[in-house]
Amino acid sequence: MKMINASDIGYWLFTKASNLHLINGELPLGTAQSLGIEDLKGMVIGEWEGQKLWLVEEQDNDQRDYVGLRDQLSLPEEKFYLLNRGVEINHFFKTHKFCGKCGHQTKQTEDELAVQCTNCGYRSYPVICPSIIVAVRRGTEILLANHKRHYHPNGGMYTTLAGFVEAGETFEQTVRREVLEETGVQVKNIRYFGSQPWAFPNSQMVGFLADYESGEIRLQEAEIHDAQWFSYKQPLPELPPTGTIARKLIHATLELCEAESKTKQVENNQKGSPNVSVEK
Fold first, then answer.
1. Which class for 216: exposed (0-12), middle (13-18), buried (19 or more C-beta within 10 A)?
2. Torsion angle in degrees (nearest 10) through CA of 10, 11, 16, 17
3. Which residue, of 33, 101, 142, 147, has the greatest Cβ tally within 10 A?
């Protein structure tokens, strides 16, 4: 980051952990002088509504009001991901002021997004933590879990299973391990679905679909309050917000459940009507 000039203009992203400062629901817009921030540090991280988007270095004594990044899930993906970028970059600079190798102070490099030790020259780059998230299907049912952090006496949110990738592990191995650890279920036919940056504070959610192979639900009670198989036909519990990859995984799996049901119905009709011919 560099010192902001009074004449610098654009939208301004103030972050505090995974929270943002908004004015009437919008990012502040104007010159640095008009916002009184010309004595702070910042950097351009992208474009917002045709203007530069500046990330402002987090201040310890900041008295501005902040809202959660999750509250912005209704934004178009491109905008939501840009806000994630700002949160993650701020987290990187905030947690890498000193060298992890020798302990001396670092400074931002000029040629790339990194910090370099002023003593030993060791460079550090933004840390991105990969995490899998998976929706599991058994025929016309989907496996959903109520994590302890989502539980409340009226039920709480049910969602897909997720977990961080461990060292030396493939994404597919993580999927198998996390599902087995949290629910006692074995899965197969694991396939990639999509991904989503998730700045809480620096995760990258890598989504998968998987099919049930074997096992009965056995909860990892330290993390999971409840887990159940839900038919696509039955009313579902509270689900993750629209815009999350979890909600997209659930929607895609329910579509697969419905398709499976229709296929079985056709097969049953054909078995019951031996004289019915099928056009090719």
1. exposed
2. -110
3. 142
Query: What does pTM read for this prediction?
Result: 0.90
Residue pLDDT tens, the chain, 280 long: 899 999 999 999 999 999 999 999 999 999 999 999 999 999 999 999 999 999 999 988 888 999 999 999 999 999 999 999 999 999 999 999 999 999 999 999 999 999 999 999 999 999 999 999 999 999 999 999 999 888 778 779 999 999 999 999 999 999 999 999 999 999 999 999 999 999 999 999 999 999 999 999 999 999 999 999 999 999 999 999 999 999 999 999 999 999 999 888 888 888 876 554 443 3
Q: How far apart are CA 149 and CA 200, in angstroms?
A: 15
